[in-house]
Request: fold
Amino acid sequence: MADPRSDNPGIRKWTPARYRALLRAQGPKSVHFRTRLAILIGAVAVGLAATVFAQAADLAGEMFGHFAARWRWAPLVVTPLLFAALVWITRRFVPLARGSGIPQVMAAQADPDQATQGLVSIRTVIGKAGLTLAAVLGGASVGREGPTVQIAAAIMGLTHRILGVPLRGAVLIAGGAAGVAAAFNTPLAGLLFAIEELASAYEQKVTLLVIAAIAIAGMVAQSVQGDYVYFGLIGAHMPIVTALIAAPVAGIVGGLAGGGFARLMLMMATGTNRVTRWSKQRPILFAALCGCVVAGLGVGTGLTWGTGYGAARAMIVGVDAPLWFGPAKFLATLATAVAGLPGGIFAPSLAVGAGVGNLLRSIFPDSPASAIVILGMVGYFAGVVRAPLTAVIILSETTASRGLMLPMFATAFIADGVSQLVCREKLYHGLSRTFAMAHSSPARGGGSPED
Reply:
């Protein structure tokens, strides 16, 4: 019996030539196949790298904690000297490693291929990782999440170079988003952060790429670290009547404080005032002075060192904390961020937000303490980064408080609006311009203090 397809001109025969054409387009040697393989390998590597970096940062924080407990006054000397040394090393050898890492990835999208030689080069991120760990080891108020974004983007760039496939800005977005997801174990937050912050023009292809990278990196990180919740299973909730009052208050206070932080950061990074000019003329001395501020606060309070994770979690679960923690951690984080050494502000900002929520507890004494603290974290974080959806999803996923979603959304959007009144430009977007200017000449020196 004859093949019916032979009588139908609309159906093409599968000839050897067609098979060869299909192999060229989709086979193992094709660009399409190698691109997918590069993303797969890169996502696995991102998950592993994020896990190793997280464990190393936690170990460094514990080591400093033991050091500060045994020799209480030593950080008054060690921390300022370390700040000065780290800024000198950064400016001398890896100037594009300074600060968070998120602005670098945003700037790298303009020219991804060139960025693999500078902004997201392996040399830059190796220096970034080592110097960030050194900063944590010295008690600096830094987080590991921002550096993880830059490291993840560099890994994606490396896998594409090794397999010889074109590198697009979307790949860097996927890598950065996967880094956020793996660092916090928050896949949805990684996706939303890519949409709100990393991607200036979001397309369906980018969405699928980000989802794939996040899923793979997240599964790898979970397989190594276990299925954990960053701040623990809090499950906070709040009556709707209380939320109608608490959410606007948390949004206004968090927006004012977060917007103030962002404005001060941008002023020091891109401003032309006398203090900014002096800090750029004497960066090493300025870093040492910032280290003195961090050391003084740390020695005086014993609570403002490092990421602030322990203090934030204690406040979330309802432990009473001194009212001055929020303002003190704010100053320690600002002093660390403007000093110009590598390190992020994600985790420290969540700790400051917990301090804001702790202040609000006195206004709402009859409300669930954990819910008020979480609203303070959402409000302040949204005020700093101006990414309200990311703020809500991060706190929802890191505390398992999905019953608090509606108050969190209200708080985040109010905080975002209030923050705009204080600081018009988004923090990471403003800081990315300093790297865009340095992108064409990423050699030594230069650079402004930023996150």
